[in-house]
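_Backbone structure tokens_
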Amino acid sequence: MLRLRLGGEETMRELADDILTQKDTHLTTGIIGTKYLFPVLFEGGRGDVAYDLLRQRSYPSWGYMLDNGATGLWEVWQKRTGRRMNSQNQPMLGSADAWLYAGIAGIRMDEEVPAYRKILVAPGVVGDLDHAGATLETLAGQISVRWNRSRAERRLLLDLTIPVGSVATVQLPDFNWGGLRVSEGAREIAVRREQRQVRWETGSGRYLFQMEGER
């Protein structure tokens, strides 16, 4: 994942304001900029903005393509006809797909430990999204993440598979829940809670973690 070298919270506020207010939650990036926009927003704590961009339906957006009959990614944002359309099946604007794995499902590789031997599982529980999941085949083996949030019951379930020989750090938002606890079966998990995040470590295997707060 890209590491931010930005000017901190003020820079992220300005970027989010430009996208949401000045551009009415629309992309103004091309092939190269789009690739970096989503991880920058995610790393800067504005995964909600990235999520809203991804759901946008009006021009320019991926939703606009779908609403205008696209069955693959166009080479250009706007709808064209005949020879003016260029290719209707290009991967160039498909870089947001990687954010779905790293930002929404939350499967990320530790930059200092290669080949997914150390994994950060940090699902992006953003907006009105209440469940997501992904499976990734890596050199270390298969990594699988499935999460489901119940707002009314103040509970989040995390179905997690870590390959043999790998370890993982799990990171979830704490949602400002009081009396927060994390368990796996009948076993309560010791966690660290700081900066509105909950973190704990786990080894290889399949787990069904439950995080819940007082109702």
